Automatic annotation (TrEMBL):
Gene Ontology annotations for the cellular component aspect, listed alphabetically: cytoplasm
EC number of this enzyme: 2.1.1.77
Identification of the protein by name: protein-L-isoaspartate(D-aspartate) O-methyltransferase
Keywords of the record: Cytoplasm, Methyltransferase, S-adenosyl-L-methionine, Transferase
UniProt KW Cell wall biogenesis/degradation keyword: no
Compartments, record wording: Cytoplasm
GO-annotated molecular function: protein-L-isoaspartate (D-aspartate) O-methyltransferase activity
Gene3D superfamilies reported for this sequence: Vaccinia Virus protein VP39 (3.40.50.150)
Entry-linked CDD domains: AdoMet_MTases (cd02440)
Amino acid sequence: MVYRSHIFLFLPILLLICSFILSLFRMAWECSASSNAALVRNLNLAGIISKPRVIEAMKHTDRKFYCPHFSYADSPQSIGYSATISAPHMHGTALEQLESKLQPGARVLDVGSGSGYLVAAMARMVGKAGYVKGVEHIQGLVDLSKKNLQEDAKHDPLIEDMLKQKRIEIVRGDGRLGSPQDEQFDAIHVGAAAPDLPKRLTEQLKPHGKMIIPVGTTFQDIFVYDKDAHGNLSKKFLFSVRYVPLTDPPSDYEDM
Ligand code: SAH
């Protein structure tokens, strides 16, 4: 009798714990698929991406070239060097937010470019007259992303041409300082969290430019910054996130 009453108490608690754990993973499961096309369709159905140019860019940027394991899972995946490729819903959100500035001919900076996925997707949006630069501080990831882009380029003459013309470039550097060439961009994506908005990045944003960046330490918020014609910045809060921080390169990877 006593034993049965324990079960009645235990079962609802177990169900509660299970549904809590499930809810934690729901975001990651929601859009997961078994092909790139299905993943992009799910992101669209979930309302994460809706702009036709974003949908096209993501359809043509097959994640299998940038994320060899669980390519179409809507969750971050390891790419080595203690780094991860961001989840598809985060890539989709960034492209949606920057879309108005990812116009043909635009110049774009991707800070913490990791796998190179977003560099490729943004290159498809700015096209052959555009320019996309990735800044990554781990040499192994600079090399890996270049290799990934070359694989992608085998299936798309646009990416092949942009790589040849140096309209897609990945450089090693401290992304907190923006482009080492100190130039200006129409759009800046930051893929790791900064404790405060890095000044150099705001300086490298053109008037009318747009930047998306996670800001914060333990708790981080994603902000979209817009620069007006006079260089004044305004910001919009999107949502809270957990990103890896922008750091010094780990010493064991320094020469890799
Ligand atoms: N957006 C990328 C990677 C996101 S993970 C993708 O989806 O593939 C964050 C990346 O930022 C990692 O590759 C990490 O090495 C890089 N990073 C962290 N601090 C950095 C810094 N100070 N300068 C440049 N890159 C940095």
